[in-house]
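Supplementary Note 3. Input sequence used for the single-chain structure prediction.
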Amino acid sequence: MNKSPCLLPSGTTPHRRLCLAVDVEQYSRLDTLAQSTVQTDLVRLLDEAARRSGLDRTGWERQPQGDAEFDVLPADVPEAVVLGPFVHHLAVCLRMLNARAEGPRLRMRLAIDSGVATTAALGHAGPAPVAVARYVNAHQLKAVLAGLLAADLAVIVSDRLYQDVVRSGQPGLDPAQYRRVHVRIKEFLSYGWIRVPGHGADDLREFTDLPLNPPSASANDFPTAAALTQHVRHGAAVGRDVHGAITIRPAPLPSNAAARRLG
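The predicted structure, written as discrete structure tokens, is reproduced below.
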């Protein structure tokens, strides 16, 4: 009997693409009206920064996520334009937005990497989409934005982009503005380079010279990790979130038989 060939779904051919992820700081603390305003402002900011940089966002493969957005850019978009003019104009537009008299202040983290990315059933797959999702949540990047209160934007780029593009000597890209960090989240382990527009690399030192893993909460505040267990009922982990009922409680004590085995 002849077997039909196993064909990949349309659009799954891997290509090297520029990927970016942006995430709004402290979004969950806002009320519903403010969250809606922030989502509108985020889209307008990205559109305007792209327009000022000569980029057409209508060709970007966009994956909105409420307080965040993941994008895969067309293959012909110059990496230097995204790392230079786009980041510059995004910082300028943010500053102008936050100078308004009303509305919540918008502060964000931006991660950029270049690598293999392909369309998948739930969005995109490949090393680059995974990398920017990890980079944008690096604890050093969060610490920089939380510590530099005058800043509205903190950017992290992959070591690959820093070495290949930032250090290429192109106008608007100054390697001295970046500070290297070692990012470790889940199984992801890599170097990244953080830049904050309007600040020098020395301003980032106290926030980036952190342990590879962020310090845990005080033992007096919470039970130890060994004493906790997490139960998810009828839920699924999607991205950073867990959808469904979740309960965290002290782990049950071992049975008598189990205790004898451990002893």
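The longest strand covers residues 108-120. Residues 15-208 form a domain with the Alpha-Beta Plaits fold (CATH 3.30.70.1230).
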